[in-house]
Amino acid sequence: MGLTKQYLRYAASAVFGVIGSQKANICYVTLRGGERGRYVAVAACEHVFIWDVRKGEKVLILQGQKHEVTFLCPSPDGVHVAVGYEDGAVRIFSLLNGETSVSFNGHKSAVSVIRYDALGARLVTGSKDTDVIVWDVINESGLYRLKGHKDVITQTLFLKDKNLLVTCSKDSFVKWWDLDTQHCFKTIVGHRSEVWGLVLLNRENRLLTGSADSELRAWDISYLEEVKAEGEPKEKKGKTLLDDDEDQQEDEDESLDERILSCKKAGSILREARDRVVSLTTDSKARIIACHGNDSILELFTVLSEDEVQKKMSKKLKKAKKKAAKLQEEAGEEAAEPAVEKMLKDEIVRLINVKASAKIRCVDCLSCAGGELKVALLLQNNTVETYSLRTADKTPTANKTSRLTLGGHRTDVRTLAFSSDNLAVLSASGDTVKVWNRSTLQVIRTMACEYALCSLFVPGDRQIILGTKSGKLQMFELASGSLLETVDAHNGALWSLCLAPDQRGIVSGSADKTVKFWEFELIKDQETGQKRLTLKHTRTLQLEEDVLCVRFSPDHRLLAVSLLDCTVKVFYTDTLKFFLSLYGHKLPVLCLDISHDNTLIATGSADRNVKIWGLDFGDCHRSMFAHDDSVMFLQFVPKTHLFFTAGKDKKIKQWDADKFEHIQTLEGHHREVWCLAISPNGDHLVSSSHDKSLRLWERTREPIILEEEREMEREAEFEESMAKGDMPVVPGETQGEAAPAGKKTIETVKA
Ligand SMILES: *[C@@H]1O[C@H](CO)[C@@H](O)[C@H](O)[C@H]1NC(C)=O
Ligand SMILES: *[C@@H]1O[C@H](CO)[C@@H](O)[C@H](O)[C@H]1NC(C)=O
Ligand SMILES: *[C@@H]1O[C@H](CO)[C@@H](O)[C@H](O)[C@H]1NC(C)=O
Ligand SMILES: *[C@@H]1O[C@H](CO)[C@@H](O)[C@H](O)[C@H]1NC(C)=O
Ligand SMILES: *[C@@H]1O[C@H](CO)[C@@H](O)[C@H](O)[C@H]1NC(C)=O
Fold it and tell me: Disordered: where is this region (predicted)?
């Protein structure tokens, strides 16, 4: 070993496997004048992916930085998308080139909603920090911060022709704001629980709110100033309701203190779902309402125009008159002129329910030419589905028009493997195994499998083997994409597989307290008469405890077995005689690996530590605190004494097993990292996480100086704590003072 060891940086190279993240919404966007309803934008962790739903292809990536995307909103002209992030930042991207030029920093925590005004000149954002901020898009500055809500803001809408804003929140209130004075002039208190969404209908004379129950509450809005200015009698304005005199009186009174508008409960529409509203939205003309809870049913309603309602009412009246006349005839006496009352259900009519193939996370809808409604659904199982229906049909049917599933797994990926030629990557989840082209990240094969826990490529890279939760070994052939064989290998979860160094077989370790040895064998297939690969069980090693991980030493002499009792036992491969026991971890060892030269064994445990041991005597060279949660995976970089670990703390770290140094941390995943695979040449690393993303990392030529690396980490930590503790400034908030909106950075603090 030389005097100075050079460490090379691994850099993030791609995020894949995620179709749509659950933290943000889905929205239709237009791309370079393309056809409407063809492209949708969804969050993919810190990025935004634009998918062409027709072709099922990713056509544009709006690159994020570190924090997850929490909300998306396209601009009215369709040229931009405003993106809100977990840290409260908002960036505006151009859909022409995918680049961002404007960014707004005013919120202290996740952006929960973003809306443009009708002209696209102003943006309103709501946040988990309970503030609402109005931004000037053209001047790229903050206008006002509106404080008043006491919990997460769930919706904010500009009114079209008035300088007003309506907002709702988990604090159970709906608030109306006058943007001329930046004051809340009215609070609607009729909800007993969180308000999860609101929409404006009927030229903004009707408000509909969604809450924690199955009621969609409807409110009548009358704009009082307008009425006075026009000098018209009120009856003409209040066309949505046949007010009786008493209500009229109340309105008059209210207008004295409120002057701007009155808002009265008009009734409610019942949803079929019993749980809370998860999203409530309309198409751009507010003719269709789409609503869903935490299940797979989307409920659609049609909002009838005033003319349509009038027509309906006169029909009703005619009917009633006829009936009255008939009664009169029968009774032979005078009957009163019948009265028909206009009801909410005459105005908002149930259209159809759409059943998606999994629970819905979010919906967007788009009215297109010819009365076609397009619906895009982001599902909770990493899928996007689109539907189309003709709303004018008497009994419309919703046809599924596309489904994006290919580029990702429905459930978490629990195992990854690299092919021996470094060119293909295997990922397997609860129901499918995929093989990806490492350079293009295109899916080469997708095959149904049982719940997979471990995997490997058979030498030659023509077959793969999975170990499953139910104790089976499944072998697939890549050329045909078919399952060759399922072997009932164990009576418990098959946690670990390892290829024999002589490449002639594998070993499997299971929760049934056994380790089994298998040899590859070519047999003649009964049906086809052709030779095919199979696995022959040769030996069994019985243990006292569940087996969590098994690894051969590269010289094939030893087999290390980690057990549920927190020890690792090492056996001679040939005789299966006990050789060593490694004691010391306080919780079970979930992962381990042996260095290429058979000298070191590194173990990672649920106790958050990594231990490095000599394989000659089983002496512990060093124990290092590695992650803030369980160490899930550990692997040496081939032909080195450097190794990587993956933690439930979302981090991936690289270590030097000779100098006991932490070299670098690969940050990027937003949830627990489950597993890793390092390419045989050491140039690539792929990781999988509970955030549904797979990430590819690449070894660069850039050397790492450890002191500088530590300094950078300290700075990053400091910056994070500053950002948290600091109240960002929005101009307009401090009257007359035009302080720039922005966060304190380490530069400004140092200065
Ligand atoms: C931009 O700011 C200037 C000066 O503060 C102001 O006069 C102008 O009206 C603003 N423009 C817009 C579109 O808000
Ligand atoms: C939806 O239901 C699942 C359980 O089925 C629960 O874990 C999740 O938190 C729920 N989501 C919402 C938004 O209520
Ligand atoms: C998840 O998505 C797929 C779409 O490929 C669908 O077939 C499946 O039924 C969905 N639902 C669940 C609950 O997994
Ligand atoms: C939906 O599919 C049916 C049957 O294939 C077809 O008749 C109908 O026109 C389709 N509807 C739409 C809106 O495409
Ligand atoms: C991956 O894609 C590249 C470029 O299309 C191609 O040359 C290569 O053969 C593919 N590799 C695999 C393993 O399919």
Answer: 234-256, 718-751
Cα–ligand 4 centroid distance for 157 (angstroms): 35
Gap between the Cα atoms of 474 and 437, Å rounded = 22
CA pair distance 468, 445, nearest whole angstrom = 19
Q: Which amino acid is at 532?
A: R
529-565 pLDDT per residue, tens: 888 899 999 999 999 999 999 999 999 999 999 999 9
Residue 7's DSSP bridge partners are 704
Handedness of CA 476, 477, 479, 482 (dihedral sign): negative
Q: Given its phi and psi angles, is residue 101 left (phi above 0), alpha (psi -120 to 50 degrees) or beta? A: alpha
- Name the helix (H) or strand (E) containing 256: helix 245-258
What is the sign of the dihedral through the CA atoms of 442, 445, 448 and 454?
Answer: negative
Strand order in the sheet with 297-303: 279-282, 288-292, 297-303, 348-355
Which of 54, 366, 395, 397 gets mutated to test ligand 4 (max ligand atoms within 8 A of its CB)? Answer: 397
Measured from the Cβ of residue 720, the count of other Cβ atoms closer than 10 Å reads 12
Question: Alpha-carbon torsion 84, 89, 94, 98, what sign?
Answer: negative
Residue 120 DSSP label? S
Taking the centre of ligand 1 as the mean of its atom positions, its distance from the CA of residue 122, in whole angstroms, is 12
Q: How far is the CA of 114 from the centre of ligand 3 (A)?
A: 30
Give the residue whose CA is nearest to atom 4 of ligand 2: 294
Neighbours of 97 (CB within 10 A): 9
Identity (one letter) of the amino acid at 209? T
Residue whose CA lies nearest to ligand 4 atom number 12: 389
| pTM score | 0.87
pLDDT digits (tens, 9 = 90+) for 196-231: 999 999 888 899 999 999 999 999 998 886 555 544
Rounded Cα gap, residues 297 and 350, in angstroms: 14
Q: CB of 138 closer than 6 A to ligand 1?
A: yes
**Residues within a 6 A CB radius of ligand 5:** 423-424, 437, 439-440, 444
Beta carbons of 106 and 125 less than 8 angstroms apart: yes
Return the residue whose CA atom lies nearest to atom 12 of ligand 5: 437
Ligand 3 centroid to Cα of residue 298, in Å, is: 16
E strand or H helix that includes residue 390:
strand 384-390
